[in-house]
Amino acid sequence: MNNANRRVIDIVNASLAKRHAKERRFRRMGMVAVGLGLLFVLVLFADIFLKGAPAFQQTYIRLQINYDAAVIDPDGSSQPDTLAFADYQALARQSLLEIFPDVKERRAKRDLYKLISPGAGQELRKRVLENPNLIGTKEAVWVLADDDVDMLMKGKIDRNAVESKRRLDNKSLAWIDQLEQRGDIEKRFNSAFFTSGDSRQPEQAGIAGALMGSFFTLLLTLLFSFPIAVGSAIYLEEFAPKNKWTDLIEININNLAAVPSIIFGLLGLAVFINFFGVPRSTPLVGALVLTLMTLPTIIIASRSALKSVPPSIREAALGVGASPLQTRLHHVLPLALPGMLTGTIIGMAQALGETAPLLMIGMIAFIVDVPQGISDPATVLPVQIFLWADSPERAFVERTSAAIMVLIGFLIAMNTTAVLLRKRFERRW
């Protein structure tokens, strides 16, 4: 081998070595980028979990409640209206005074009463209405503690801080310590977080109303969007002639998929509420708005699924005598269904996490009662998170994070369902 050839080989080898080194550097950069992305996600999830986990526990105080007939049913009629409007909070306060008989001053009594939540009376009212035989008896009842007491029990308030900088003074700390020694205060699983609606009091606030609002809204969105999107995709992909009008429709569908979501909220406000008179702040109008927003996503995914079906399937069906409609419905559609379902669930997950369009149609309203139907005033989980995040009370911070955990759980479940459906119905040809 002459010197010229040897030099060429050396140049090529040097060039290959440089390219291999660049490739290795590029791979390492890619691995670092993926690692950083995962690290940031883990840090975010860890922060949300650490802040939200305490919300699944709530502090309760045990009181010996005397269901005094003179307070609950003074006329002895046992009428539901009389029982419902009795001063049950006074019964809880009287029980506190029995535990701390040395508290005599009016101001001290007010501070003592603040240990229990204003919702304690509501719990007692509920118990009496369910069982009027409790009137005239006495029983131990665990009632909600105030949010400041709950924060103290969870270590969110520094007991060693200067009294003027604490939400609880020294007297309140002494009372709480005494309750702990008696075994009359403890943390329990916060079932009310999943069964109660929103409240101005953090210890009473729950996500039941937002969950039901999200359920009704997403159910209607699915019922409205899936048939329309699948029908539109089948027509555009299988039957529509290729001309300037269908090209215009396709361009508009692709453009609508990129429109900011708040624009759909403005459209819903102008058309559905102001023009058609659909009730404001209801799952019905929310579903109509989210249907407009998710239709482009589902149509595009459905068309891609139809394109993935080989032409041989259509030709074979037509060859054995199937009509064009039978070919699409009996052969093409079942094979494209996994991709359609995947796109639909992704669209539903997108709708579940939306806030901006729903703010425009009034679903930001403060809703205490859990909605029972599609025409009842409601809110959804992302909007509930938005409302709680804007609340000044510290106890709402953990409830905001806990609601985010529930929302993320639903999103993970929906995306997992999409993967499983694709695996379950996917066919190979």
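Next protein, fold it too.
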Amino acid sequence: MEVPVQLNNSWRAASVRFAGPQDFAFVGEWQKSLGADKNPIRVDAVDFARIAAHRFEAHSEMEYYAESVEDIADHIQGNPKCEVACCVLLTCDWFPPSNVIGLAHFRRTWSNNIVLDYLTTHPFIAKAPNESAHVVKGAGLALLYFLSTVARKYACPLIWGEATPHSCGYYKKVFNLPSVEDLISIPRDNFMVFISRFDKTSVEKGTGKVAASTELEEVYALEAKDSPFVGSKTAVFNPRRRLANRFLELPYHSQVAVATALGLLQEEDKKESPNEVFRRLFQRASDAGRLSDLWREVEKQYPDGEPEKSPFPGA
């Protein structure tokens, strides 16, 4: 999907596309661009991107991520109560620091709501350095538009997520909500109105110059001041996801040693990709009631491991 954003007060097109496993090198680029900069908003921008990428890496080994908007429907058709994970990137070819200028990690829940786990933008967009030659406005707004159109397509009644202390006012303004504290809760009526307003802006951008809009300028001012970040740096993942994450961080030879010690590898696994092998052994451990054993063996590999504190039955 192409969406309009502003570069130095002129309209430019950016693209929203679904992320794959090889698409997260940009996080290192963002960090390198930041250097020793300690501005808290710019630091948060990189931290949220890193956490979202880390979550994608850990969770994609246990569950499939959608690869397109239509792919979500395929998952729902197979199981109407399934959770569908998604991660999208906002990209362009006109912002010199990076071709990835924003990220959103979200999920369609079993009850057909949309949970926005993380939203962030490039650190120099989240808080442009003084006298920057490339001032971008509306990157967060564009990602929220895409998210809202997904919610519209699948008749989702609600979008929700966790605001930061600084972004709560932004979401209150953008979605015309009565109040926003840590919880962002956007009913369907509100995000449908937002879609209509954004569509109107998109149509009016034809000349390439900024259309006069007090409301739009107010939103852009809020975005420049506080940034529309969503997420938590201290979110606790469920035990299965923690176990998967810790296993995947091990060197390959340690992964093989753990799986072999528990008898989870089979001859047929030799023909499969590492991702599929892990998915299979994790499922075998779950089916056999041996997640506690897997936890213990994995935690033994870490200096800070807690092998005797398994959250799984059979500990």
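About the second fold: The mean pLDDT is 87.
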